[in-house]
Amino acid sequence: MRSEKLLEALGEVRDAFIEDADAAPAARAKKKPWLKWSALAACLCLIAAGVFTIPRILARPGVESLGDGTGTNAETGTGTGKTAEIDAQAWTDTMTAKDYFRNSGKKGSGASEMIAADLVMGPSAVMCSLGEERETFEEDGVVPKMPEHTEHSFSAAYNGDASLYKVTFYWMRRGKSDDRTVDYYSDLKFTASPKELHELSCIVYTPTDENGNVIPPYVTVTQRDGVLIYAEGRENEQKTMTWKTDVGWFEVFGSWNDSYEDVVALFEWFWAHPLDLTLFEEPPEGTMIRSTRAEHPDAFSDAIPDFAALGYEALTELVNLGQYGIGGELIPVWFEGVYTRSDTVVRWSLSTGADGDAWAACLGRPREVTEEKLTEALADKNWVNLFSDWSVDGPALMATVWLESGEVADLWEIVQSMVK
């Protein structure tokens, strides 16, 4: 069994792989009239992973929906096998902006004061400026009109496989009153990501004082129309409101000088006008190109095993090129190949970005992996991650390897071949 039939049998292999590996996949024709973007930068360093703050007790049974929304306690896993209870208030149309942050003025003690965690999102391969589209976005109702915020930075970022990473709208206001007594400083930001939450090691504290009395949490959770909204931040501090729908994750950010009213006003606008992420699902023309290894034989050459020398046949080898830097050249940002030998099928993928989940599953560099370690990692799944820093001239990479069929010994042989 080979070529199309074998590829169709691999559930996780993308439909695009069924095409002839020697022919470059055609560029996607779908375009938006305002997609005239320019590339800003490629965030290619794995070590400097970005952080999308998610104050959360999220993605757990009993948390996404609170049933009748009466404000009863919701249970959520803590990552330790225990269960914690979070009091979620029910939204009403009489709520004030401060009500969303009602717990933020209550001080606790120590690190257990807040219920929060960070969703570490890996660096994207291509980041595109949307700055010139502000007026168009406002006219189309994509973003609100904010005339007092004269400065702005809009962008969309894409992963190496060309999927959308996140969209960010950032409004800025600067200056002071003539008598210098009023500071007009403002940083308001809206971030949206279709990405599923990966790092699920949720840390939930039940804060207590020195006498064992329970301290109210720092994060305020509000249940509204079946969605949980997480708000944190005191007056004169940074503030965030984060929520998840079936479309993705959303967050509103306000600076220390932005009031609760400022932050909630931006939240309410996007709540009433949900962002359509499909507007941004395609990388802008010219910033990312889908190709094959046949056309770019040097792409990731040091990070791909010599499968031919090991007796494997390449069924498909795809390469994506992404624009690096402002108006920069196109460089390889993603690779995925499928290889077969007898009854063994291996998929080898390379990416210039990785999230917290990928790092947690990383076994290290090939020289750091043992056969015992590999066997243990494959006991309950068919893939492993390896940290790839072989390339001297290019960025560090994360290699994800799927053993679609075959034995651990087959994959161990491949990993060993990469030890330099």
Blueprint of the fold:
Layout: H1 3-9, E1 38-41, E2 50-54, E3 73-77, E4 83-90, E5 117-121, E6 126-129, H2 134-140, E7 151-158, E8 164-173, E9 186-193, E10 220-224, E11 227-232, E12 239-244, E13 249-254, H3 260-272, E14 288-292, E15 313-323, E16 330-341, E17 344-351, H4 356-360, H5 371-377, E18 383-388, E19 397-405, H6 408-417
Parallel strand pairs: 4-10
Antiparallel strand pairs: 1-6, 2-5, 3-4, 6-7, 7-8, 8-9, 9-13, 10-11, 11-12, 12-13, 14-15, 15-16, 16-17, 17-19, 18-19
Summarize, please.
This protein is mainly beta. It has helices spanning 3-9, 134-140, 260-272, 356-360, 371-377, 408-417, and strands at 38-41, 50-54, 73-77, 83-90, 117-121, 126-129, 151-158, 164-173, 186-193, 220-224, 227-232, 239-244, 249-254, 288-292, 313-323, 330-341, 344-351, 383-388, 397-405. The protein is built from six helices and 19 strands.
Keywords:
eleven-stranded mixed β-sheet, 420 residues, mainly beta, 12% helix, 19 strands, disordered N terminus, 31% strand, six-stranded antiparallel β-sheet, elongated
3D structure, described in words:
- The chain has six helices and 19 strands.
- A hairpin with a 5-residue loop joins strand 7 (151-158) and strand 8.
- It has an eleven-stranded mixed beta sheet with strand order 1-6-7-8-9-13-12-11-10-4-3, covered by helices on one side. The chain has a six-stranded antiparallel beta sheet with strand order 14-15-16-17-19-18, covered by helices on one side.
- It has two domains: 3-30 and 287-417, no CATH class; 38-280, no CATH class.
- Helices cover 12% and strands 31% of the residues.
- The chain is mainly beta.
- It has helices at residues 3-9, 134-140, 260-272, 356-360, 371-377, 408-417; strands at residues 38-41, 50-54, 73-77, 83-90, 117-121, 126-129, 151-158, 164-173, 186-193, 220-224, 227-232, 239-244, 249-254, 288-292, 313-323, 330-341, 344-351, 383-388, 397-405.
- Mean pLDDT is 75; it is low at 1-84, 107-122 and 197-206.
